[in-house]
Design goal:
- By secondary structure, this protein is of the alpha/beta class.
- It is built from 12 helices and 14 strands.
- The strands form 2 sheets. Strands 1, 2, 3, 4, 5, 6 and 12 form a 7-stranded mixed sheet that branches. Strands 8-7-9-10-11-13-14 form a 7-stranded mixed sheet, sandwiched between helices.
- The longest helix is centred in the N-terminal third of the chain and has 18 residues, at 44-61.
- It starts with 5 loop residues before the first strand and ends in a 6-residue tail after the last strand.
Length: 325
């Protein structure tokens, strides 16, 4: 795929002086790539992915890259507005941080390279029926999909006597629905009764979580952006009710969970940034680049919430480092 380059003049030709004249050789030009970053919402996991991406791109391209970073503030309708501004501005590459941003970018352009990160299932996000690991178009990226069978095993390990598991998710996030369906199957194999509790946006989280906490023994929150950005609200309902939450990722677990099978979102974003360097500087064909996945997962627990609920974690669980406000 041919890449467009813009050029900035680092030194202008010197004006004529009594002592001599500047020449074109005095002007120094360096290619500058513009990368548009559309992040769906601000929360720990997506922020870390964005940092990792920018660090990798900057390490690979130095001062030959500039970022146009925009945040949709959790409004999926804002993503197309941001993406269309990138397209009209002629950016060289788009980073779509989370599924709504990826869907908006894939709809807006079939020419500008698009890399996704913090996206769970590319087939669901792009509505691809037969997915072989590559999108076959101007889209690639990294997935934050954790092994759901191992997350279900974590529920069973920690709460073997529980009967009812509630799965809380945002119904407007396709990847969340995918995880809930898959996780339900894994939990039912282990003898649990499962019920999905969907909320449309942050306005009805409180009512949905309150109902789930009154009907279930354990709650599960997937890698859901809206839930993660409202994790404190979920904790404020579940902790007083004595209901533990298993979280799909570390940021949400820090806010409301007792345990998670964690991935490193900074590393995920960094890998995406390395992919961007290969596309921009090395001319790699993005349509042939396979989606990449997190290489390792770690069992972690929230010490503070576990103490409040009177839970003791197994020795192979690592305590989460809590981030100061």
């Amino acid at each position: 795929m041919a890449m467009k380059k813009r050029f900035l003049t680092a030194a202008m030709a010197l004006a004529l002086t009594a002592g001599g004249a500047g020449t074109a050789a005095d002007a120094k030009e360096a290619p500058v790539y513009t990368v548009g970053i559309c992040q769906y919402v601000r929360h720990e996991a997506l922020d870390a992915a964005a940092r990792g991406f920018k660090d990798a791109v900057t390490e690979g391209l130095g001062d030959k890259v500039e970022f146009n970073e925009q945040n949709a503030q959790g409004d999926a309708h804002t993503c197309p507005i941001i993406i269309n501004s990138f397209v009209s501005g002629g950016v060289d590459l788009i980073l779509a941080n989370a599924t709504p941003a990826l869907q908006a970018a894939a709809t807006a352009t079939d020419e500008i390279p698009i890399l996704g990160t913090s996206v769970t299932d590319y087939a669901a996000a792009l509505d691809v029926d037969e997915f072989d690991g590559t999108a076959g178009r101007n889209v690639s990226g990294t997935s934050d999909l954790a092994p759901l069978d191992e997350q279900a095993a974590m529920v069973q390990e920690l709460f073997p006597d529980a009967e009812n598991v509630g799965l809380i998710y945002c119904s407007s996030e396709p990847n969340s629905l995918y995880q809930v369906k898959a996780m339900t199957g894994e939990l039912e194999k282990r003898g649990y009764t499962c019920k999905a509790y969907g909320f449309s946006d942050s306005n009805d989280i409180s009512a949905v979580v309150t109902r789930a906490a009154s009907e279930c023994d354990v709650l599960y929150v997937p890698t859901d952006n809206t839930a993660a950005s409202n994790a404190e609200l979920i904790a404020n309902i579940c902790v007083p009710a004595g209901i533990p939450v298993i979280a799909g990722e570390e940021g949400a677990c820090r806010g409301c969970g007792v345990a998670t099978l964690s991935i490193d979102y900074y590393s995920l974003g960094y890998t995406t940034g390395e992919m961007a360097v290969r596309v921009l500087a090395q001319g790699e064909d993005i349509s042939a680049m396979p989606i990449e996945y997190a290489p390792a997962f770690t069992k972690k627990y929230n010490r503070e919430i576990c103490e409040k609920l009177g839970l003791e974690m197994p020795e192979d669980y690592e305590a989460l480092e809590m981030i100061a406000d």
